[in-house]
Amino acid sequence: MNPSSHTEKKIPAKAKNDFKDLGFGARLGAQQTRLLNRDGSFNVERRGLPRLYAINLYQELIGLSWPRFIVTVLCFYITVNFLFSLLYLAIGVEHLVGLDNSTMMNRFWESFFFSAQTLTTVGYGRISPAGFITSMTAAFESLAGLMGFALATGLLYARFSRPQARMLFSKNALISPYREGTALMFRVANGRKNEMIETEIQVSLAKTMPDGTRKFFELSLERRSINFFPLSWTIVHPIDADSPLFGLGRDDFRQGGEFFIQMKSFDDVFSQTLYIRSSYRFEEVVYGARFTFIFGRNQAGATTIDLHRLDEYEPAELSTAEPEAVTAETGEAP
Q1: Residue 146 — φ and ψ, nearest 5°?
Q2: Minimum mean pLDDT among 7-21, 228-242, 306-320: which range?
């Protein structure tokens, strides 16, 4: 893969040898949408498979949000009872001993609640099946209820036991003063109260080339890992002569490009390693700014962090940036 002469002026020699393929392929054309969404999901639509082939009910139910999961379970529960109540009505309510047969509405609701008692194996005893067909239907419903609630219990356990990270990324990435030059920076913080340790990060760049293809570069970082993650972490990529961002001005960040972020951290609550993904498009990069300071101290002297200000930044003059404007460890202003 030989870049054009125009590209050679923009990409240093070392960066040319850092071409990588992250799995998206190089020939994606002048695509304007992002490849990796901010929530870590891939912006790829699979086509050509049978509709039912790609459905994984277990995966769908595990991945649902809690409100949607609860609504799904309730709808399934009501639907099953509704169908069985219609079945009991079709068989004949005279085969349900103790049922209120005064009106059609009473017969339906009595059948519905008998179905609910049978499905959950509660069985209050006021209404009981009589006859072979009705008894077999009730027995089958009891079996379906036992299996259904066993599956629901397994799903609940899987959802509670599945570790999930809630990593907060700053809304924008910044081109900020760094030591005597500039750097690409963005901030990340843990949105949960669990402790994250042995955190590592990798940042890659997908850049649209003049021929319409994309090239992938792994960006060198000031620090790739930290042992503890109780505060925010400002990720810093120094823009030096070996950086694929070297020589890019404010207008260059209006062209096609995307930064891919992959984090790996150990959750000491679940004792499992979590993987977090996110991305920034070139248009989400603010040129000539620095993050504001978000740390403080409470009355007891403990360190505080205001996560509501994670996205805040202020203008910064890149050409006159002083070395002490950003610390070497975190990229935070002193």
Answers
A1: -60, -45
A2: 7-21
One domain for residues 210 and 263 = yes
Under 8 Å CB-to-CB from 31, ≥6 apart: which residues? 256
Token pair of 307, please? 């996560």
Q: 89 and 113 share a domain?
A: yes
The stretches of the chain forming alpha helices (DSSP H) are 5-10, 13-16, 57-63, 66-91, 104-119, 132-161
3 state SS of 30? coil
In whole angstroms, what is the distance from residue 12 CA to residue 162 CA?
44
Mind listing the pLDDT tens digit for each residue in 207-221?
877 777 778 899 999
What's the distance, Cα to Cα, between the start and end of the chain in Å? 43
Of 132, 161, 190, the last residue of a domain is 161
**Predicted model pTM:** 0.71
* pLDDT above 50 (res 127): yes
User: Between β-strands 285-287 and 173-178, what pairing exists: parallel, antiparallel or unpaired?
Assistant: parallel
Boundary-marking domain end, from 161, 189, 206: 161
CATH number at residue 64: 1.10.287.70
**Assigned domain for 172 exists:** yes
